[in-house]
Amino acid sequence: MFVAKKNLGQLIGLSEPPLPYLSPELGGQKLLNGANFASAGVGILSDTGIQFLSKTYCSDNEKYQQRLSALIGAEQTSRIANPALVLITVGGNEFVNN
Question: pTM surpassing 0.85?
Fold first, then answer.
């Protein structure tokens, strides 16, 4: 999301946008900046929403929190993850294609 030539990460004070969760560069201190779980083309209908319905996001998010916990401990991870900003937008394929 871009507003006035800034991305959402910059607007909330991050020095750089979160890396994609599957990026090999996402490790160590970069985990503290969050992770981007975006997936293009995710829908909510059975024939367009396989990625959403398979709960891939939930599984990846849980793994991310485990990696973060290994770095900074479970208590600190809870302090970071519980108030985290999560944006989920799905269904664009259904509106455009149907």
Answer: no
